[in-house]
Structure formats: C-alpha cells, structure tokens
Amino acid sequence: MSLFELGPSQPDVMSGTGVTGAVGGISPEGEPDADAPLAVRMRPRTLDELVGQDHLLAPGAPLRQLVTGDAPLSVVLWGPPGCGKTTIASLVARSTRRHVVSLSALSAGVKEVRAVIDTARRQRRSTGRQTVLFIDEVHRFTKTQQDSLLAAVEDRTITLLAATTENPYFSIVGPLLSRCVLLTLRPLTEPAIRTLLERAVADPRGLNGQVRLADDARDHLVRLAAGDARKALTALEAAAASAQARGMDVVDLATAEGAIDTAALRYDRDGDSHYDIASALIKSMRGSDVDAALHWLARMLVAGEDPRFIARRLIIFASEDVGMADPTALQIAVAAAEAVERVGLPEGRINLAQAVIHLATAPKSNAVITAVDEAIADVRAGRTGPVPRHLRDAHYPGARGLGHGVGYRYPHDDSRGVVAQRYAPSEIDDRRYYRPTTHGVERMVGERWERLRRIVRATGKENGDAE
Description:
Blueprint: E1 4-5, H1 38-41, H2 62-68, E2 75-78, H3 85-95, E3 99-104, H4 110-127, E4 131-136, H5 143-147, H6 150-154, E5 158-164, H7 168-171, H8 174-178, E6 181-184, H9 190-202, E7 212-213, H10 215-225, H11 229-245, E8 250-251, H12 253-259, H13 272-286, H14 290-302, H15 307-322, H16 328-343, H17 348-361, H18 367-380, H19 442-456
Parallel strand pairs: 2-5, 2-6, 3-4, 4-5, 7-8
Antiparallel strand pairs: 1-3
Helix pairs in contact: 2-3, 9-10, 9-11, 10-11, 10-12, 11-12, 13-14, 14-17, 15-16, 15-17, 16-17
C-alpha cells in the first residue's frame, strides 16, 4: 500500500496502513491499468471531459477549486452510483501536486486514518505540502472513525475528499459535515449517458471503433443505465465482447439485451433510497394512483425488501390515510401482513399487491390521525381535568361514600342505547377532535356521530361537577 505524491518525484511509501495508491483505478502515474474495466479506462482526464454535473462546474465553483487545487477545501461528494464521484477524485489525483491518499471505508479503521494524518502532519511541517485524503463509501465509517478526522480537517492537516451514496445528513456526523463543503451530484441525464457511450465506442482508450453501436441498442443501454455511467459502460463492454465473440462488428439490440439480463436496482435497505421508495409507495396510494403504487411495490420486492416492512407500512397507512372512510382497509392490511407471515415470498407478493390496490382505490380520510394527534397535543399542553365523579371506579369499598359512580346513567337502559351524560372533563367542553369527512363510509359515520353528539351533550352538566 502506498502514499503517493503526483508529479515528477517518486511516490513515498507507507506500509501496513491500509492505504491504496490508486484512486478509482488510476495509478500514481495517472494512467489506468491496461486491463482495467472500460468504465475505468474512460474516466475523464481533465475537468473539461467531465460529462454532467454542469451545476457544479461554473468558474470559481467549489468543484473547480477542488480539482485545480486553488483552495484547500474539504468536500463531501454526495450522489447516486455512477454519477462521477470517483471520477472527480481521480481528476484531483491527476491535477494537483499535493499528496493524494485513498482509503476505503470498507477496510480502513481508526488506526489507518491516524497513520495517514500523522504522516500528513510530518510532511506538511517538512515540505509545506498538503495531503488530500480520499475516502470512498464514507458513510460506512463508524462515528468513532469519522470523529478521528475532525481535528485534521479543522486545522487543514488534510484536505478531505469523501464520497457517499447515502444522505450525509443521516450518515455523516454533524461536526465533520459542518467542516466540509457538501456537493450534491445528480444522476446523469440520458443525453449525457448517450455521449459517454458514443465516446467509449470511438475513443482509443475504449473500444477504438472495433464495433459499431446500433441506435436501438444504444437507446436500450441508455434506459438500462438509469443515470449511472458505470452501469452504461459496463453493459456496453459486455455487449461488445458478446458481439465480437460471434464475429459481429455491430452491437445490435438483441446482443445488448442478451449481454445484460436485468438492470440492478439502486436500493440500499439501510439507506435513504429505502425510505425514498417507501415514501413513494405511500404517497402514490394516498394519491389513489394504483399503477404507480404497484410500481413502487415491485421495486421494493425485486430489490429484496423485507415483505414484513412493507406490510407494516400498509397497516399504518390503512388507519392514517383511509381510516373510517373504509373501515375494512385496516382488516385488509392486517390480513395481508398475516398472509405474508404464513406463506412468505414469492406468493406473499400477491397478498401485498391486493392490499396495495385496495388501499390505493379506497376513499381517503385522515380524520383518525388528526383526531388523536389533536387530543394528544391538548394533553401535552395541559388541557386536562379530573375524571367526573360519576365516571370514576365504584367497585371498591368506600367508593360510593366518595361519590364515585353516583349519578352514572347506563346507556343500555335507554331504548336508543345512548343517553345525555358528561364524559369529558370540563376543560375540553369546546373541543372537537373527530371531524368526519364525507368520503366513503365516513359520510354515514359522520351523520351518525352528529346524532349521537346531540343526544350525549344535550344537557351538558347533568351529572354534576367533576370534583
């Protein structure tokens, strides 16, 4: 493993540190290995070759300062796979005369981090040169590992360049994030992916014109990539190899389809994509779009999501977003959850789909969650009072002597099954928590509740004072 300095001098060597001397497959000498994957060979060599991320490339922007070395900015690069995070790191390695060290969060620990910092500190004192520390997958560092970087980033012993696919506000400790500039990278657009594919076909570093990419095959690879440059170039390399193995000089649609069976879904069960897709499922059902809801359900299932997690979300949704507009919704959701527990996957997908369809097409009401949350808010705000005497427990000796249960009216003794009686403390006499909508079954529930309310509250304090 090596710590290297780019430029005419020879690389310094650090042994036993877990440090790698290559960034994104780029060696200390600045060129990819001859047998490197196409995606590595085609990494841009200058900032001008970078495709996409135009919002970060304006003159004087932090990204340009980072690559040109004009300012010792510590930066967190946040974006989905294949959007250019490692490419930017390799551009820094090519263009700056600072020491560049690469760590992988998958294998490095606090010991390796401290070794890099100690060496960087000595070199800064002896030569005045700074060290750029590139950490890939920084979200996989523990809090302790991230904390070990704080002082060195603070006093600029190192310039941190960290890459992550996870939301840094969740995955990076606040003190470290506050010491860095956060650059958000976006998935590449279809025109950008198309440009990369065409460049890779023609460029001597790539396929060098040995095959031609048919238009429909190119469009297929663009769709398959879903904004991921690495995925696009990997698929192109596989398709080109397949075509050449059969003596073809054209990658047609059939060859492109056959080279890659299924697009790998970008879905981390422990990351924010997990929550983003779950949120999309909930919001699609809330918006009554069955097809969109089924799409998000399928995305979760194909990506290997725990079906029990999906079932729990459906149970919550049934009460939160459907509620009394369709009281059977909760029954359907609970039944789907039980079915998943009993039969598992793949058959459980059918039960989940039935529940999703039912919930998406059901009339919607958030009156249940609104009612209980308003009641909880009043309690937390101190709007409480003693239990009225006639409602208090009267089953123990002496209770009657205290007036407990005295004056209580038993609703079943009335032919209507309801009587005028105080049930709430006087402090909330004016409060109405449950406000039924006119959607679905809740229209009838609301009408019945109004009739009941008029009877129950007809005489107000008929049972006497609460004390």
